[in-house]
Hints:
Elements: H1 17-25, H2 28-36, E1 38-40, E2 45-47, E3 49-56, E4 60-67, E5 73-79
Antiparallel strand pairs: 1-2, 3-4, 4-5
The structure holds zinc ion.
Zinc ion (ZN) binds near residues 40 and 72.
Amino acid sequence: MGEKEKGCLKDITGKSNIVNLNWRRIPKEIRCELINEVYCGHCDDCVKIIIYYIEENKYELILQGKCSICGKYLEKTIEK
Ligand SMILES: [Zn+2]
C-alpha cells in the first residue's frame, strides 16, 4: 500500500506542545524506528503505527494511534 510520506511525524496532531517537544527530543532515526515497529495483535505482526496523539506521564511517552495495515487502535509506550 503505497503511502507517500516524507517525515515520520506528519500525522501527529499533538494537543500538547510540551509533549511533542519531548518526543522531538528523541533522535529522528529512533523515532522512525519506534513508529515503524509496533506490534499489532490483530495483524499478529510488527507494523507501522499512524500516530494521532502523544501522551506523557512521569516515566514514559505514550504513542497513540492506529495500525497502518488494519486500522485498529494501537498504543506504544516509550520509557524516558
Ligand atoms: Zn493491524
